[in-house]
Every structure is written in structure tokens, then in C-alpha cells.
Amino acid sequence: MPRPDYVAAIDQGTTSSRCIVFDQAGHIVSVAQREHRQIFPRPGWVEHDAAEIWQAVQGVLADALGGLDGQIAALGITNQRETTVLWDRATGQPVCPAIVWQDTRTAPLTHALAEHEQLFKEKAGLPLTTYFSGPKIRWLLDEHPGLRERAERGEVLFGTMDSWLLWNLTGRHITDVTNASRTMLMNIHTLAWDEELLAALDVPRAMLPEIRPSAEIYGRTRGGFPVASALGDQQAALFGQTCFAPGETKSTYGSGSFLLMNTGHEPVVSKHGLLTTVGYQIGDTPATYALEGAIAVTGSLVQWLRDNLGLISSAAEIETLAKTVDDNGGCYFVPAFSGLFAPHWRSDARGVIAGLTGFVTKGHIARAVLEATAWQTREVVDAMNADSGLDLTTLRADGGMTANNLLMQTLADVLAVPVIRPMVSETTALGAAYAAGLATGYWPDIDSLRANWHKAAEWRPAIDETAREQEYRNWKKAVARTLDWVEQ
Fold first, then answer.
1. Phi and psi angles of residue 237, each rounded to the nearest 5 degrees, phi first
2. What is the predicted pLDDT for the residue at 203?
3. What are the Cα distances from residue 92, in Å, to 174, 179, 217, 292?
4. How many angstroms separate the CA atoms of 58 and 334, rounded?
5. Which of 120, 302, 353, 426 has the fewest CB atoms in 10 Å of its CB?
């Protein structure tokens, strides 16, 4: 029987859905993409139409696979995490708009649950914030009359986007361990829904999907090929960057940035402001865990410089502007536009530009904007090293900002380790494809995936330790000036 030619991945993101097809070497064969609406019914509310997203996914599948001359071995799924969908078991239709991970309507509820904060930290590995799915489910059940009773009878089902797509593709109500680890309802030690967590959030067990590994054959599509992986987007990027050994770390640089460090088969509960999450689980092998540091504002700061201040007319111009000067001229930009994420978790913080003198030009500010991404990364890496007992030796970087060579060099200087950009930048979809290909035997083992990984570029540290640490002290002084700004 001839060997299938390709593996496909659905990358269901916050603003669009894509289907990317890869060959045996991990090269991209075809891509299709469709955007979906961002719905903002009130300040702080962000919603999606799950039915619209399913239509988009069907469209990109047809577009990406339609012109292929060859067979698909497997289909993998990676998805925006924490976004919460409720649907009718009988009709398969959403019963309300999906609440997106960015939505903050559950802030009063999370404050009311403060007595359970230590429980969530110890069992779920997560801080009590609006970010995660559990409070969103509770809000929907509380606010929609009759919904809780239907959920308790198992008539209304919950899922994150992976579950919604798996339901529509295979008819099964399942999720994987990485997505389940972002709900605040799964015990990260047992990899099972936890009665104590369910009780604290008052979520009925009958509405929850079955938790499965990240890579196994879940079912088949109507087209007949196996659906064989599901991974939250940042975990998929960790997998696509082949960070399979403890200590190996990737950072995805987009509007915000996410660093994940593989910590092996034991969850490390952070004492330094990071999230403990499941990295991946291949079949019935033990789960691999990760520490995660989320940075709210990185690429979006460059957009802010373009759109709000007009100092540049395109994001790419920031590198040219920053190169008009040799250093930051003594100024530091901390972009705490809506508080600070990891490792501080300070919602009272607001952005500052510190160290201004008459000498500072727009070139210095542009350089300080790029350095803000590097210093925020350094803070998260220091926390990871302290939590894990492992020292970062190399950073594998992906995402749109990695096209900025000055930023990549600055990261290497600030972290004092080499920074590497891979040949294939679509690491999220690649990770989902790799996991699906492993589950179906398209790739024999993780060593074959490592062999596919090739670096496109590498940057090495080029400043001395004294200069690095002096700059870091100045950065920390700037961060201190952002705190306690919002009094209520």
C-alpha cells in the first residue's frame, strides 16, 4: 500500500482559521486562510460566533486540500486557548456566543472566588484570573436562564475550540490535556477533571468533554482520513520547535509573547509568577509539562508607535529607525498598557517611558521599544530558571517579530544565550501536524522530527556582563515606576 504523502493541520486562531499542509520534511505544501468576526458587544467583552468559525474551517480545509496531488495521512488541530463554546448536544448548534480568552467580563466573579486562589494554584497550576475557561463557563450558566439545568442533564456541552472542531469533524465530545489544563477545572497532577475544582467554580461535570492525549487517532472525517492531534497553540509551537528535552524553551513573538519551557514529566508549580501547564502527551506515554510566561505587550507596542504616535509608517520601519542611534540614550519604555503579566501580574501598573532627557530622539525611543520586548523576556526567563532549576542555554524564537534582526540580536545580548530562528516559521501548525503524524506512523518517532528542524539564523551575545547587568538594573527601576498607578 503506498505511503500517504502529506499531513494537514487546522490552526484555529483568534482572528482567523488556517489549514496548512506539510510534507515528510516538514515543508509547507499548501496554505488557506479565512478571517472571522471579532464581536465587541460591551467594553471588555470579546465574542466569536462558533458556527461562523466552523464554516471558515470547512472552507480552509476544502481550499488547502482541494488542489493537492496526493493523500493525507492525518489531520491535526491547534487552537486559540481558553475561548469558551457552549452548544446543544442534539442540534450541534451553539447556544450562545463564544467568550474569547481576552474577555474580562468575569473580573467580579474571579474577585468573589479569591478564597479558592490557593486551590487553583496547587491543583490547576493557574492563578485566578479572567484569562481561563472555568469562570467563563460559570458566567454563562449564571447569566442565561435555564442553561445550568440543561448543562446538568448533559444537554448542553462545553468545549474549547479544539473540542468544538473535534465534535464537528468526528462526532466525539473530547479535548486534549493541553487545552484541559487551561480551564482551571483539570487537576494537572492526575490529568482528570477535579471534583474540588468543579465545586469551587460550580460547573456541572455532565457538560465536560472526555480528556484525551494530545496525539492519538480520535476519529475520522467524512473524507475518511484520521483526526489525530489536538494542542493549544502555544503548546503546539513548543512541539513544532521540537523542544522535547527538559530546559528546551521557545518564545513566540506576536502582539504579545509567550515563552514555554519544557520541564519534563513532573509539573513545576511556579513560585515566581509563571503558569504551570501541560506541554503535550503522546498516546499513553507520561505527559510532558511546561512553565509558561505570558507577556501582554510586545509586537502591539510597535503597532502603537505606528498608529498612535505616527513615528513610523510600517512595523518594519522600527528597525531602520532604531539603527539611527547606537543605544537607547538612557530611556526605557515599559508598556504596561493594561497592567503587567508574567512574572508580575500587576493590574494596577500603567506604561511609562523613564529616563528622558533633552538628548533623547525618536531613534532612542524606537530602540527602547525593541528593548522592552527583550527585557520583558529576560524577566520571564529569570523566573523560569528559578522555578525549574534549569538554566536556559538557547532560545528558539518564532512569530512575526523574529523578522526584526536588531530585536533578535538584542534578545541574545539581554539573555546572554544564543537566539535561533527556525527555517519553518509556522511552528504552531507544524506542531499539530507533527503530533498527528506521530499518532498515525507518518513520522516514526520524535528523533525524525528533530532531524527536520533546521535553523535559518542564529544570534550570539555581543555585549559584556557589566553593561548587561547595568541596563537590567535600569529596566527594573523603570518597571518599579509603573506600579500602584491605578488606585482602584
1. -65, -40
2. 96
3. 14, 21, 22, 34
4. 42
5. 353
Q: What are phi and psi of 125, to 5 degrees?
A: 75, 15
Cα(165)–Cα(161) distance, integer angstroms: 6
Nearest to 230 by CA among 256, 246, 244, 212: 212
pLDDT of the residue at 3: 59
Q: Which residue in the block uniquely carries the three cell numbers 506541554? A: 279
- Binding residues for ADP, by number, are 14, 18, 299, 400, 404
Peptide bond preceding 422: is omega within 30 degrees of 0, i.e. cis?
Answer: no
Rounded to whole angstroms, the Cα distance separating 126 from 118 reads 9
Tell me the binding residues for glycerol.
81-82, 131, 233-234
Question: What distance in Å separates the CA atoms of residue 51 and residue 251, rounded to the nearest whole number?
Answer: 31
Residues belonging to the binding site for ATP are 14-16, 299, 303, 400
Question: How does DSSP assign 214-263, residue by residue?
Answer: SEEEEEE-TTSPEEEEEEEHHHHHHHHTT--STT-EEEEESSSEEEEEEE
What residues form DSSP beta bridges with 39? 47
| Domain-wise residue ranges, the chain | 6-233
Q: Which residues are annotated as a binding site for sn-glycerol 3-phosphate?
A: 14, 81-82, 131, 233
Query: What is the C-alpha R_g of the chain?
Result: 22
The number of beta carbons lying within 10 Å of the beta carbon of residue 346 is 17
Pick the CATH number of 6-233 from 3.40.50.2000, 1.20.1270.360, 1.10.10.10, 3.30.420.40: 3.30.420.40
Residue 300 near residue 376 (C-beta atoms within 8 A): no
CA distance 268 to 25: 34
Going by the annotation, the residues of the binding site are: 14-16, 18, 81-82, 131, 233-234, 299, 303, 400, 404
One-character DSSP codes across 235-246: HHHHHHTT--ST
pLDDT of residue 488: 59
3-state secondary structure of 350: coil
Looking only at the bridges linking them, the beta strands covering 288-295 and 257-264 are antiparallel
How far apart CA 392 and CA 379 sit, in angstroms, is 13
Strands ordered across the beta sheet of 226-232: 28-35, 16-22, 6-12, 72-79, 226-232, 215-220
Which regions in the chain score pLDDT beneath 70? 1-4, 488
Conformational region of residue 154, where left means phi above 0, alpha means psi within -120 to 50, and beta covers everything else: left
